[in-house]
Amino acid sequence: MTARHVTHGQEGLVTRFAPSPTGRLHLGHAYAALQAHDRAAAAGGHFLLRIEDIDGTRSRPEHVAGIIEDLRWLGLDWDGEILFQSARLTAYQAALDTLQAQGLLYRCYCTRAEIAHLSAPHGPGAVYPGTCRHAAPRDDLPHAWRIDMARAAALAGPLDWHDELAGVQRADPLAAGDVVLARKDAPASYHLAVVVDDAFQRVTHIVRGRDLFEATHVHRLLQQLLGLPTPIYRHHPLLRGADGARLAKRTGAPSLASLRAAGMDGRVLADDLRAGRLPIGFTLPNA
Ligand code: GLU
Fold first, then answer.
1. Cβ pair 229, 222 in contact under 8 A
2. pTM over the 0.90 mark
3. In a domain, 123, yes or no
4. pLDDT digits (tens, 9 = 90+) for 21-62
5. Which pLDDT does position 4 carry in this prediction?
6. CB 194 less than 6 A from any atom of ligand 1
7. Whether residue 53 has its Cβ less than 6 Å from ligand 1
8. Cβ(20) to ligand 1 under 6 A?
9. Which of 205, 251, 275, 283 lies at 20 to 30 Å from 5 by C-alpha?
10. Where is the Glutamyl/glutaminyl-tRNA synthetase class Ib catalytic domain (predicted)?
11. Considering 20, 249, 257, 264, which one is annotated as catalytic?
12. Is residue 52 within 6 Å of ligand 1 at its C-beta?
């Protein structure tokens, strides 16, 4: 064939599944992985796997092996090498340096207990009250790095992002407060690492659960400050148990490993999830 075809598909589309290896995958993860995989497959694009293992205290190599086994059992394959966040620490440091040079970071010396106490009067989910924002720097104390969100938002100006299901969103990073970007015990927080790596892996469409919708306001801001492209988002609804609660390991969501041990066929399960046929006791609300 000599003529080159001009195509108008989305074959350059790239999605990813980015689990943290802190336990075995459950049905909710299976649903999320299928959503990301199928979004790419439908467009003739690429589906990547990233292991978010920067939390050295909770990540376990045996869970990485378990994740790979579980995805294969579902009949899912990914393109290229798996990216491990634990191998990306210099990239996170470079991003921190860029933000630091813009005068947007400050050291936070607060302990977990202090933060719980400081935020308690403002109710659950209250944002960090900025206690260390003007603290004198101390080299003898362990510290996290937080972003001065008001300053960062003012510098970046108004920002939008697009969700394939919810439409255009005006970024509201202030609602998250001065989030941590580098932790005392880990060189990058989830927010920083995810933004740096999605750009590094050239992810064009971020397909993930609705529970991360609010985090995207922060991610959009970080993309702007770091000069990174903004992907398109698709925050899918979350699978829920019979009690209406979202699935989580700690609330007894069955692991894929246990379903396999009970004799379930992973590919059949995958097709059932795709068709919205959920195992008894599970629901998928639209909200
Ligand atoms: N690692 C995150 C998690 O397991 C997901 C990150 C993302 O999809 O942005 O919840």
1. no
2. yes
3. yes
4. 999 999 999 999 999 999 999 999 999 999 999 987 889 999
5. 40
6. yes
7. no
8. yes
9. 205
10. 14-255
11. 249
12. yes
In whole angstroms, give the CA distance from residue 44 to residue 254: 32
CATH number at residue 253: 3.40.50.620
Q: How far is the CA of 141 from the centre of ligand 1 (A)?
A: 30
Residue 42, pLDDT score: 96
Asked, for residue 135, whether it belongs to a domain, the answer is yes
The residues near 13 (Cβ < 8 Å, ≥ 6 apart) are 39, 40, 43, 44, 45, 46, 204, 205
**How many domains does the structure of the chain reveal?**
1
pLDDT single digits (tens) 163-200? 999 999 999 999 999 999 999 888 899 999 999 999 99
Give the residue among 229, 226, 228, 224 at the shortest CA–CA distance from 156.
224
Quote the ligand 1 centre to 25 CA distance (angstroms): 12
Tell me if 238 is assigned to some domain.
Answer: yes
Pocket test for ligand 1, best of 60, 212, 217 (most atoms within 8 A of CB): 212
Domain enclosing residue 245, as ranges: 10-283
Q: How far is CA 87 from CA 58, 90, 193, 196, 214, in A?
A: 16, 8, 11, 13, 27
State residue 116's pLDDT score: 80
Domain-embedded: residue 266: yes
pLDDT at 251: 63
Which pLDDT value is given to residue 145? 97
Counting from 1 in the atom list of ligand 1, the atom nearest the Cα of 29 is 4
> What is the dihedral sign for C-alpha 137, 140, 141, 144?
positive
